[in-house]
């Protein structure tokens, strides 16, 4: 990830600009005095740069919750801050900050907000979760020009690679999203998806809560799949296969198919590697036979007004449980324009979201995005608003 080591941190009076980069405000951690966040806007993307004071120097890098795609935006912002603050740069891995011509067009790259505003219309929709190199996604999109493919991936460099390829190939039937696929599914209308591919998911043997396959994910997949639509899991991990099989079979009702070492139309980078090592490959396919009710989502992520500093300070490092969900207050910041900012995790235990809440006396809001509009998140939000504003 792009970063710069500077000799010392020099705060600048904000708002400020360096060429096209706008610096909006500085937020300083109330407990850990060595950590600051700089709010940046560049090319319609708003995000934070993280400043971490070390013993010998200061690290300036992108902040992971708000990190934008493509990465060159972060690189430009890092260089812009170093230039604006006239910092002495000791070392940097930020080299080429020019925009790659194949990333200039980014219509294929959607944000979670775009989906929340309106789901794309298409006769046939297929979703690939964790597309990695994108080999399977792009092959399928080229072979099926009448199908809309939605590729979801949390690894930003992979998203960029796929975006470049989409532009080079001139594909019009692919949408990319860098977001957690487990949360995304909640925004998908019922019974419209013909296939969900989950190929070689990370097994997360030591952190099973991060696995894509779970009862909640399978239930949500069943809801979005059309009649006879399929959820296709492909894995080389015997452990993940066993765990997934147990999860699928514990459903009340399911039509399932299992295959071992089945060849498919295109083999991914991972698959090639496992095949070379003569590992077995397992598929579990769920075939949906149910029509699900339409999703009912209604509610608001608006906050009440007012800023009660003592109330907010008392929330730091606490966890609140609500019906079906929770809020954990991870970090607390004060901004240089007299606001407070909380870094929180919230939502359902299985699919928590990591966000900031910026609290001002006249307005409070989530950053970098609002939570996914699910019933649990609306309920958790209501509770959160009560905790912050009383
Ligand atoms: C082992 S790789 C496999 C990539 C690709 N499917 C293939 O077969 O080559 C798993 C990918 O899933 C992505 N991933 C993990 N959890 C995810 C999630 N919750 N939502 C979206 N992508 C995820 C990872 O970033 C990684 O690129």
Q: Would you kindly provide a written description of the structure presented here, covering whatever features stand out?
A:
This protein has helices at residues 72-84, 112-117, 135-143, 156-169, 181-184, 215-224, 238-249, 269-276, 309-315, 375-389, and strands at residues 3-6, 16-18, 21-29, 35-42, 45-53, 58-62, 89-92, 109-110, 125-129, 148-152, 174-177, 193-199, 225-235, 255-260, 282-287, 319-322, 325-335, 340-347, 352-359, 364-367. The protein is α+β, with helices and mostly antiparallel strands and 390 residues long. The chain folds into three domains: 3-92; 106-287, 3-Layer(aba) Sandwich (Rossmann fold), CATH 3.40.50; 309-389. Strands 1, 2, 3, 4, 5, 6, 7, 16, 17, 18, 19 and 20 form a twelve-stranded antiparallel beta sheet that branches. The protein is globular. The two termini are 40 Å apart. The structure holds S-adenosylmethionine. Residues 129-133, 152-155, 158, 180-182, 199-202, 212, 268-270 line the site of S-adenosylmethionine. S-adenosylmethionine is lined by residues 129-133, 152-155, 158, 180-182, 199-202, 212, 268-270.
């Amino acid at each position: 990830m792009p970063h710069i080591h500077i000799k010392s941190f020099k705060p600048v009076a904000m708002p400020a600009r360096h060429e096209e980069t706008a610096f909006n405000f500085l937020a300083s951690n109330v407990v850990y005095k060595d950590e600051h966040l700089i709010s940046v806007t560049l090319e319609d993307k708003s995000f934070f740069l993280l400043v971490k004071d070390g013993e010998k120097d200061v690290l300036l890098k992108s902040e992971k919750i708000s990190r934008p795609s493509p990465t060159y935006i972060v690189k430009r912002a890092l260089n812009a801050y170093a230039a604006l603050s006239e910092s002495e740069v000791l070392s940097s891995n930020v080299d080429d900050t020019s925009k790659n011509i194949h990333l200039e067009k980014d219509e294929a790259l959607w944000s979670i907000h775009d989906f929340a505003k309106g789901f794309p219309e298409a006769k046939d929709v297929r979703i690939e979760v964790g597309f990695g190199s994108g080999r399977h996604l792009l092959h399928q999109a080229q072979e099926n020009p009448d199908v809309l493919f939605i590729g979801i991936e949390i690894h930003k460099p992979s998203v960029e690679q796929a975006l470049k390829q989409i532009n080079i190939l001139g594909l019009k039937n692919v949408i990319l999203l860098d977001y957690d696929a487990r949360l995304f599914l909640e925004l998908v209308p019922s019974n419209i998806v013909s296939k969900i591919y989950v190929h070689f998911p990370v097994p997360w043997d030591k952190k099973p809560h991060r696995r894509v396959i779970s009862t909640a994910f399978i239930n949500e997949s069943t809801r979005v799949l059309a009649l006879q639509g399929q959820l296709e899991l492909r894995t080389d991990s015997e452990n993940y296969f066993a765990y997934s099989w147990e999860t699928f079979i514990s459903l009340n009702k399911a039509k399932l198919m299992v295959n071992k070492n089945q060849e498919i139309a295109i083999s991914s980078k991972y698959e090639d590697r496992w095949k070379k090592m003569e590992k077995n490959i397992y598929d579990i396919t769920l075939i949906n036979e149910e029509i699900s009710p339409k999703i009912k989502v209604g509610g608001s992520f608006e906050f009440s007004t007012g800023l009660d500093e003592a109330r907010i300070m008392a929330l730091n490092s606490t966890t609140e449980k609500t019906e079906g969900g929770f809020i954990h207050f991870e970090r607390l910041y004060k901004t240089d324009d007299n606001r407070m900012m909380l870094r929180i995790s919230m939502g359902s235990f299985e699919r928590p979201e990591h966000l900031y809440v910026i609290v001002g006396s006249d307005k409070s809001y989530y950053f970098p995005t609002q939570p996914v509009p699910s019933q649990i998140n609306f309920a958790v939000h209501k509770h959160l608003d009560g905790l912050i504003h009383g």
